[in-house]
Amino acid sequence: MRNKSVDCLIVTIVMSVVSMLLSCENQSKTIFLNDYITSDIQDDVMPAIRNAIEDCNRLKANKLVLPSGHLQIKPDFAFERYCFVTNNDEGLKRIAFDLSGMEDIEIQGDDTHLDFIGYVVPFLLNYSNNVVIDGVSIDYTTPFHSEAEIVNVQKDFVDLKFDKDEFPYEIRNGLLSFANKPTGSGFYNSLLEFDKQKREPAHDAVDYWADGAVKAVDLGNDCVRMFYDGMKATPDNILVFGCGHRLLPAFIISDCRNVLIKNTNVFHSGGMAFVAQRSMDVELNRCKVTPAPGKNRVLSATADATHFANCGGFVKLTDCLFENQFDDATNIHGIYCKITDVVYPDKLIVKLVHEAQHGFYFFKKGMKIEIVDNQSLAHIEDAVVDEVNIINKVYQEIVLKEPLSAFVEKGFVVAQTSYYPEVTIKGCTIRSNRARGLLLGSRAKIVIDSNYFHVPGSPIYFEGDGSYWFEQSGVRDVEITRNVFDNCGFGSPSWGKATVAVGSGIWKDKENCRYHKNIRVHDNVFRHFDPRIVNIYCVDSFDFYDNILIETADYQYNQMKKEAFITTNCDNINIK
Amino acid sequence: MRNKSVDCLIVTIVMSVVSMLLSCENQSKTIFLNDYITSDIQDDVMPAIRNAIEDCNRLKANKLVLPSGHLQIKPDFAFERYCFVTNNDEGLKRIAFDLSGMEDIEIQGDDTHLDFIGYVVPFLLNYSNNVVIDGVSIDYTTPFHSEAEIVNVQKDFVDLKFDKDEFPYEIRNGLLSFANKPTGSGFYNSLLEFDKQKREPAHDAVDYWADGAVKAVDLGNDCVRMFYDGMKATPDNILVFGCGHRLLPAFIISDCRNVLIKNTNVFHSGGMAFVAQRSMDVELNRCKVTPAPGKNRVLSATADATHFANCGGFVKLTDCLFENQFDDATNIHGIYCKITDVVYPDKLIVKLVHEAQHGFYFFKKGMKIEIVDNQSLAHIEDAVVDEVNIINKVYQEIVLKEPLSAFVEKGFVVAQTSYYPEVTIKGCTIRSNRARGLLLGSRAKIVIDSNYFHVPGSPIYFEGDGSYWFEQSGVRDVEITRNVFDNCGFGSPSWGKATVAVGSGIWKDKENCRYHKNIRVHDNVFRHFDPRIVNIYCVDSFDFYDNILIETADYQYNQMKKEAFITTNCDNINIK
Predict the structure, then answer these.
(1) B342 has which bridge partners?
(2) Which residues of chain B have pLDDT under 50?
(3) A119 touches chain B (CB under 8 A)
(4) A chain contacts of residue B80, beta-carbon cutoff 8 Å
(5) Chain B residue closest to A397 (CA)?
(6) Distance, in angstroms, between A401 CA and closest chain B CA?
(7) Do A393 and B92 touch (CB under 8 A)?
(8) Searching chain A, which residue's CA lies closest to the CA of residue B187?
(9) Residues A331, A458: Cα–Cα separation, whole Å
(10) Closest to B392 (Cβ–Cβ): which among A94, A174, A184?
(11) Above 60 in pLDDT, residue A183?
C-alpha cells in the first residue's frame, strides 16, 4: 500500500510535467516575427516574414505575432504562386504572407502597418482552414492608381496639377503615362471626378473611359494639359485615374474554410481589398477599407472592397467600414459557365467567358448544377456532375450522371447549386465609393441589418446575368432592416436606378421570369434627395413596410424619372 | 517422347502467336491523327490533336502519324502550361503538341502544314526523351510582326504602304498600332529596313528602337505617314516592325534527352524557331527557318532561328537553312546568376538578372559550379552544390559542399560547369537574317564545317558576359573549316566587327583574361567586301591558316576601320 502523501507527490509531479510539456508545446506554437527581423533587413522585412512563415509550417505553429509599427516589404524575396482570382487579374504573383495549406493559424498584429513597395499581394489564403488575421494595416508606398487636382476646365482640355511624389507621371509619346509602373500595368482604364471637399465621387460624375492613352502636354510646375473632348469637370475637384489592372488584391481567400479577419485596414490595394472564392465561413469583423490616414488620397482600394464568388457556409461583414474604394462594397454571387457544345447523351463543353473568371475551376464530381437559359435566366434543368476534364483555363468538359434532355442548347449557362452562403451584413458603414453598395446574389438567407449607406449608386442591388458578367444570382430570402440609406444615388445614372434595385440581365420572357424571390425591406430610414426608392423587375414576393422616408435637399436631383416605386413583371408586391 | 512434326507445329503456333502479339503491339503503338479528325472540326483540328496525344500517352504509342496537307489550329482547345523559356517570354501558354513527359515517340508528318491562328506554341517537349519530329511546317495566319513598303522618305516622316490583309494596322491615339493582336502584345520593339530585291536587311541598315508607339496619321488607301525623326530609309524597300514579345517559340525543348527534329520548316514564330534548355543530345537535320513560300513576307521567325542554353551531350545542326529570322542563327551558351549575397561560410543568394532568364532553374545537388568575376570574367573558384532553395523565379539560395573563400564578392556571377554540349554545325545555309550568325559559347568541342554564311553581322561570334546578358561562354576547342563566308557584315555596325569576332563583355583586367581558347579557322573561303576578317581579344591560341580570301565589290564598305586582323590581349596567335 502506498501512503497518501506519496500519491499526492506523484500527482503533483505528473501535473507539473504535463503542465511543462503543455507550456513547451504552447510556446513552440507561437512564433514572433520580431525574432526574425535583424537590423540589416529593416528596409525589407520580407526575408523575415518568409522565414517565420516557413517555421510556422515546419513547427505547425498556431500563432504568428507581428510587432507593432511599420514594416516595409519589397517583392524581391516574396513567395511566388500563379493565382487565378475571380474578378481580378490572374498571374504569377509575389506574395508576402502565403498561408497556402496552413491550418489553425492566427496572424496576430498589434497595429502593425505593412507598407508595401511594388507588386506584392499582402495575404494569400489558399486551401487554408481555421485562419484568424487580426490587427494589420496594408498600404503601398506608390499607389497603383493616380490622382490630380483639376485646375482649369475648357471644352477641349482639362488642366491638372499632380503631387509628383505621390503620383509620378510623365508625358510619353504625347500621352499621359504614370511612371514607376511596370510595362503593361501603368495603364489607367477609367477617369472619375471626386468632390474634394466631400471626398466622394462628384455629384452626377460619370465614368470616362480611357485605354491608358489620353493625349496631354506638360505645362511645367507639375501641371498637365489633358485633351479629353467634352469632359465635364469642376476646378478644385480631384480627378482619379483608375488602376488598369487588378493584379494585387490585398487578401485572396481561395478554397478555404473558417476565416476570420478582424481589426484590419486596407488603405490601398491594386485590385480588390478582400476577395473570397470557393470558401466556406468567411467573416470580416471591424475591418476598414479606407484611404490611408495622413495622406491626401481620395481613393482606398482600386476595385471592390469585398467580393465573394461560389462561397458557402456563411459570409459575415460585421462592424466594417468600406469607403472610397473604386468599386462596389461587396458582390456575392455564383459563376455561370457558358455551354459551347452539347455532346449527347451526357456531356457538356463549357466555357468561362469573362476574362477575370478564367481558371475559376469549381465543378466537382457529385456537385449539383443547374442549366439556365442565358437570355431569360429561366431554369432549364438540374443535373449532377460525374466527371470533370479541364481543357484549359477557359474550357472544361463536364460529364453528367444522367442523360441531358433535348431542351439544352449551346449558349445556355450552367452554375452550381450545391451550396450558397448565408449572408449577414451588419453594423457596417458603406460610403463615398465608386458605383454601388451591396450586390446580393446568394440563394441562402441574406440579412442586411443596421448599416449606414451613402453611396453614389444603388446601395442594394440584385444583379445576375448569363451574357456579360456571367454571375449567378437569384435571391430567395432577403431581409433588409434597420439600415440608414443617406442620400444615395448621387453619382452616375449608370450605377443603379433606385435605392433598392434589380439590375439583372434578363433579355427575354421577362413576363415569366421571377429570378429573385422573397425580399423584405422594413424598418429602414431613407434620407433621399433622389425620389426613386425601389425599382425592381422579375421578383416574386417583395415586402416594403414600416420604413421612414425623409426627403432632403442635400443634392440636386437632375434625372428625368421621378417614380418612387417601380415594379414590373413581379408578383406578390406589398409596398406600404 | 514427342514426334518431330508435333514439335514443329508447336513452334509454328508459338511463333504465330508471338508474331500476332508483336504485330498487335506494333499496331497499337502507332496512332493516326486522321482517325481523330471528323468533318465538323475541319476549321480547328486542335481537339483531334489533343485526343490523339492523350491516346499516345494512354497507350504509350511510339508514333503519331500526321496527314499531309494543311491543318488549321486555334488556341481554344489547346493544352495549357506555364513555361519559363530562356531568352523568350515566360507565360501561361497554349500548346498544340504538348509532349511533356513523353518518351520514345515519333511525330511523323508527311509534308504536314500546321497553320496556326492566334497565340499557340506549336510544340513543347518538356522532360521528353527520345523524340523524333519529322516532316512538319509551321506558319501563322496572321504574323506577330508587321511589314510595310516604304513609299516616300522625308526628313521628318516616312510614308508606308501596308498589305492590310496580311498586316492589319490602325492609328490609335495618334500612334501606329497593329490590330488583331491582344493587348500588351501588339507592340513592336524595333524597326529594321529590308532590301526588297535582295530580301535581306538593307545595306548598313540599323535598328530603330520603338516602344510600340510611333506617331502616325492614316493617309488612306492603306498608306500611313509615320513620324520618326531622322530615320534613314529607301523607297521601295520593306520596313519590318519587330514583334514586341517572344511568347511563342515554335519548338520549346526543355529538360529533354535525345531529340531529333528533321525535315521541318518554321515559316513563322512569335519568338525563336527552336529553343532548347537544359537538354542533352539535340539535333536539327534538314530543318528550315524561312519565310512562308507563296506569301510576300521578308521575315521568318521573329527572333533567333535556334538557341541552346545549359545544354549538354551534343547539339547538331546539319543541312539546315536559317534565313530571314529577326535575330541570330544560333546562340549556344550557359547562364550566369549574379551573387547578390554571400552568407559565409557556404551559402550564396543568387539572382537570375535578365528578365528572359527568370525561372531558369538549373542548379542541382552535386552540380559543379564556377564563381567568376563579373567584370573581368576571371575564374575565382570552383564549388559543388549541396542544396538549392528556390525563393522565386528571380532568386535562389545555394548551399555549397565546402566553405567559400574570402575572395567571393557580391556582384560576382556563378554558372554550372558540369556539362557542355559538343557542337556540330555542318552543311547549313545561314543568310539574310537580322544580326549575327553563330554565337558560340560551349566549352566542349565545337565543329563548324561546310556551311554557307551571308549574314549582315559577324557570322562567327564569341560572346559571354556577366553584366548584361549573363551568358556563360569561354570556348575551349573550336574548329571552323570548309565554310564559305560570302559578303558578311553588310548590316548594322553594331552586329559585329569582323567575320570572326569576339564580343565578350570583359570590362577590366583584359590584359590578363584569356576567356576563349583554342580556335582554329582553316580551309574556309572568305568572299568579302568588308576588309575586317578577324577581330578578337582575350583569346589564348588562335590559328588562321589555309583560308582563301577573295575581295568583292558586291557591297560598298562604308565603315572607318579597315584592318583585316585585330588581335588584342591574346596569346599564341598564328595567322597565315
Answers:
(1) B348
(2) 1-2, 6, 8-9, 11-26, 182-185
(3) no
(4) 391-393
(5) B77
(6) 22
(7) yes
(8) A184
(9) 13
(10) A94
(11) no
Measure in Å the smallest separation between the Cα of B335 and chain A Cα atoms.
20
B347 touches chain A (CB under 8 A): no
User: How far, in Å, CA of A342 to CA of A345, rounded?
Assistant: 8
Evaluate whether B405 touches B335 at the Cβ level (below 8 Å): no
Tell me, rounded to whole angstroms, the distance of Cα A191 from its chain centroid: 20
Burial of B516 (0-12, 13-18, 19+ CB in 10 A): buried
Measure CB to CB from residue B80 to each of A183, A213, A393 and give the nearest one: A393
Give B9-13's long-range contacts (Cβ < 8 A, gap of 24+): none
Residues in B touching A49 (Cβ below 8 Å) = none
pLDDT tens-digit readout, A251-298: 999 999 999 999 999 999 999 999 999 999 999 999 999 999 999 999
Q: Name the band, by pLDDT with cuts 50, 70 and 90, for residue A174.
A: confident
Residue B172's pLDDT is: 84
CB contact under 8 Å between B172 and A80, yes or no, is: no
Of the pLDDT bands very low, low, confident and very high (cuts 50, 70, 90), residue A70 is very high
**Spatial separation of the C-alpha atoms in residues B359 and B85, rounded to whole Å:** 8
Taking the Cβ of residue B551 and every Cβ of chain A, the question of whether any pair is shorter than 8 Å is answered with no
* Size of the A and B interface in Cβ pairs below 8 Å: 51
CA distance B221 to B160: 11
Residue B283 has a pLDDT of 98
Torsion region of B324: left, alpha or beta (phi above 0 gives left; psi -120 to 50 gives alpha): left
Residue B182, chain A, CB below 8 Å: the answer is no
B90 contacts chain A (CB < 8 A): yes
ipTM: 0.92
A229 near B CB under 8 A: no
Per DSSP, the residues of A246-265 read: --B-SEEEES-EEEEEES-E
Q: Please answer whether residues B375 and B466 qualify as being in contact, where contact means their C-beta atoms are separated by less than 8 angstroms.
A: yes
Side chain identity at residue A239, one-letter code: L
Residue A110: the pLDDT is 97
Candidates A290, A276, A285; CA nearest to A318 is A285
Average of pLDDT values for A498-508?
97
Give the pTM. Answer: 0.93
The grid coordinates listed for A480 are 433588409
